[in-house]
Design a protein that fits this description.
By secondary structure, the chain is mainly α. The protein folds into two domains: about 55 residues; about 230 residues, no CATH class. It is built from 13 helices and no strands. Helix 9 runs antiparallel to helix 10. The longest helix has 28 residues. The chain is globular and about 60 Å long. The two termini are about 25 Å apart.
Length: about 300
């Protein structure tokens, strides 16, 4: 095994919690080094780097969230991602477009359709009980969203969904991979997202208006309402904290973060800088209050070590 591969392996674990690294890093590096030498790696494969990064994220969450709460977080993200994909498909792909077709390039429609198609396929597999396949498709959706996001900034003239859409689906996919999916929470989250987000997108039609022709316009129009929904969810999380369910409260706070990011990015054309900063400050204050709302919210080294043993 070359020195460069050895250094890549060592760097791959630099984001793991200190407690886990002290207890397990040497063994993990040794095992991966043996695999690299046996396979003749010239560099650490991307799949291995992704698996190590995901493991680090799970370990950090292990110190903050119980296994049940990680399942809640993953289920909320999966359900809301599938529902958001359904709304996107209906609003920007399947609906009659009329003269608005000139405002919504077909390349953007095609790329968005593929992205949400993967999400909806994952939901279908989950509905039929093929949970491993559903998680695999969510991982594929994450990679595809990130690839489109990079392409959007490298090739600025590419016809792709808006950055807000891609960031939202990438964040939701990442969270959906952090725990086991529970059907009750998945479908509850999906129904709630369809009712709220779908209502926001389709409400203009009910009142004689038009659905936004571009998804970037949709985010700008819906940003205030999404911020309101995020605020209500965080107050509900605070109530859970005060009720002694701090781990579940933190799961809810993390689950709404992708929507907060989407709202802030979408609001840049609607909000002034001051309004945006106030919204971010309010979200940050509520999130910190949720995480520090009980003594059990502190991340202990022992919890991280236990999480490392269970997740290694």
């Amino acid at each position: 095994m070359s020195v460069s591969v050895q250094r890549q392996i060592e760097r791959a674990f630099r984001f793991h919690p200190r407690a886990w690294r002290d207890a397990h890093e040497a063994v993990a590096i040794g095992v991966l080094g043996d695999a690299a030498e046996a396979a003749g790696w010239s560099c650490v494969p991307r799949a291995e780097r992704w698996a190590i990064a995901r493991h680090a994220a799970v370990l950090w969450l292990s110190g903050m969230l119980s296994p049940v709460s990680r399942a809640l977080l993953a289920s909320l993200a999966f359900g809301s991602g599938a529902a958001a994909g359904a709304v996107y498909l209906l609003a920007f792909v399947l609906r009659p477009r009329g003269d608005e077709v000139l405002l919504s390039p077909q390349g953007s429609i095609a790329a968005g359709a593929v992205l949400v198609g993967v999400w909806l396929s994952a939901a279908a597999l989950f509905g039929f009980g093929v949970r491993r396949g559903a998680r695999g498709l969510v991982a594929l959706a994450l990679g595809f969203a990130l690839a489109l996001l990079v392409t959007r900034y490298v090739a600025t003239d590419a016809l792709l969904p808006s950055a807000v859409t891609l960031v939202l689906f990438a964040l939701l996919a990442g969270l959906a991979l952090l725990g086991r999916l529970r059907a009750r929470w998945v479908w509850g989250s999906a129904v709630a997202t369809l009712a709220s987000f779908g209502g926001l997108v389709c409400a203009p039609v009910l009142f004689g208006g038009r659905v936004a022709a571009l998804d970037s316009m949709m985010w700008a129009q819906a940003s205030r309402w999404i911020l309101l929904g995020v605020g209500l969810a965080l107050f509900a999380a605070l109530a859970l904290t005060w009720g002694g369910r701090s781990s579940q409260a933190r799961a809810v706070a993390v689950a709404v973060t992708p929507w907060m990011v989407a709202a802030v990015l979408g609001a840049r054309f609607e909000f002034s800088l001051g309004e945006t900063l106030v919204a971010i400050a309010g979200w940050f204050a509520l999130t910190v209050a949720v995480f520090l709302g009980s003594r059990g919210s502190r991340i202990s080294a022992s919890a991280l070590v236990v999480g490392g043993r269970s997740g290694a």
